[in-house]
Amino acid sequence: MTIVFSGGNNRSPNDTRILSVDINRVRNIQDEVKLSGRDLATIPEYVRRNVHLRILDLSNNSLGRTEDVVSELCDLKNLTRLNLSINELKNIPLDFTSFPFLEVLCLAGNELEYLPEGITNLH
């Protein structure tokens, strides 16, 4: 598997970093992923599949451009911190009972029309 990390503007080849990962040799599962400011419109598959994630920073992207993209996070049951600030989000279709360990949810700088049910039940 190859993971490509690049800045949002992609003006220079130096802005892109490529990491090749042999899945069979990965022993330590990463529990923190920071993908802030990458102009992401979708959540990468390697993030959605990492059920051991505890901290996820997706701030300052473009996740609001794709409807219901945030619902792709539902398998990340171990999240304790989720930063979705500055993503052009208008709604958050998440069932927060799916995140029993979530303590911090950052939604600043979005265009939210309402807050999701269960948001007051965060730890």
From TrEMBL:
SUPFAM superfamilies the UniProt entry points to: L domain-like (SSF52058)
Entry keyword Repeat: yes
Which SMART domains does the UniProt record give? LRR_TYP
Keyword Disulfide bond in annotation: no
PROSITE patterns (alphabetical): LRR
Identify the Pfam families for this entry: LRR_1
| Keywords associated with the record | Leucine-rich repeat, Repeat
The GO cellular component terms are: cytoplasm
Q: Which Gene3D superfamilies match?
A: Ribonuclease Inhibitor (3.80.10.10)
| InterPro entries listed in its UniProt record | Leu-rich_rpt, Leu-rich_rpt_typical-subtyp, LRR_dom_sf, LRR_domain-containing
Q: What is this protein called?
A: Uncharacterized protein
Organism encoding this protein: Trichonephila inaurata madagascariensis
